Amino acid sequence: MALPGERTPGAGWDAELYDRAAAFVWQHGSDLIDLLAPQPGERVLDLGCGTGHLTAELAARGASVVGLDNDPAMIEQARLSYPALEFVHGDAASFRLAEPFDAVFSNAALHWVTRAAEAAACIAAALRPGGRFVAELGGKGNVQAIASALTAALAEAGYPLAPERFPWYFPSIGEYAALLEAHGLEPVYAALFNRPTRLEGGEAGLRTWLALFAGRFFEVVPDEVHVEVVRLLEERLRPQLFRDGVWFADYRRLRILAVKRANG
Ligand code: BEZ
């Protein structure tokens, strides 16, 4: 079923809906830039830049930025919004850029990259020795209530999601720190914290979030089953996630700062 904004492989993102309904993604990312503390003139790669709002904030703080995203619609929107900035199309798990960066910054993107080891290798290769990697992604337990209810409702409807098709990567601090270390990136700060996140759209907030972020779960599900599963989710999650006319997603974030070892 092609709901507006649904992300399906091949169909890509609805960048316009993303900008309208998911502003919280980059609004919450602003203070991640403080953790990076970009210095004027530093070369910074914004990995998974989406529509480019945080790339522009990095540039406003004096960094020389390149935004990279795997979705052509996102890159097109970013170029339209910020024509003076450089945006390139690329995959976080296989990109190679010629000139090394002082820092790689990534907000709310790496939980989409299930080939996490390949991504860590690309990040390490993109950094100069001593360069910083600063990221926020969904951490262990992220959207647990939504994902569990969704998995259960699909199974009850006769469309169980095979575990290998789970679309997200939500590591613990220990798991992610070990992965980075194995690729020559030394973690110097990490935090895992709850951030219940207000969804736009009032009564339609959860439905819109599912359309934007959970399309993969519904790839082989007929329209009428899709509609019924969404209805069931709203019914089951309402006591926990709906307050005073607003849906909240049970986000749990992992923030990390790592430095590329001088000797690789
Ligand atoms: C997140 O930002 O935590 C998130 C994004 C997409 C799907 C699930 C979680």
Give me the Rg, rounded.
Answer: 18 Å
Tell me what the CATH architecture of the domain at 15-142 and 168-200 and 251-260 is: 3-Layer(aba) Sandwich
**Secondary structure: helix percent:** 25-40%
Estimate the global geometry from the Cα principal axes.
Answer: globular
Poorly predicted tracts of residues: 1-10
Mean pLDDT: 92
Percentage beta strand: 15-25%
Number of strands: 8
Alpha carbon gap, first and last residue: 46 Å
For this structure, what is the CATH homologous superfamily of the domain at 15-142 and 168-200 and 251-260? Vaccinia Virus protein VP39
Name the hetero compounds present: benzoic acid
Helix vs. strand class = alpha/beta
How many strands, what sense, and barrel or not for the largest sheet? 8 strands, mixed
CATH C-level class of the domain at 15-142 and 168-200 and 251-260 is Alpha Beta
H-E string: HHHEHEHEEHEHHEHHEE
Task: Itemize the secondary structure elements and their pairings.
Elements lengths: L14 H7 L1 H5 L2 H7 L6 E5 L5 H8 L3 E6 L2 H10 L4 E4 L11 E7 L8 H11 E12 L5 H13 L16 H10 L2 E14 L6 H9 L9 H19 E2 L2 E15 L4
Parallel strand pairs: 1-2, 1-4, 2-3, 4-5
Antiparallel strand pairs: 5-8, 6-8, 7-8
The structure holds benzoic acid (BEZ).
Benzoic acid binds next to loops.
Describe this structure in words.
This protein is α/β, with parallel strands linked by helices. The protein has a domain of 171 residues: Vaccinia Virus protein VP39 (Rossmann fold, 3-Layer(aba) Sandwich). The protein is 38% helix and 25% strand. It has 10 helices and 8 strands. Strands 1, 2, 3, 4, 5, 6, 7 and 8 form an 8-stranded mixed beta sheet that branches. β4, α6 and β5 form a beta-alpha-beta unit. α7 packs antiparallel against α10. It is globular and about 55 Å long. The N and C termini lie far apart (46 Å). The site of benzoic acid has 8 residues, from loops.
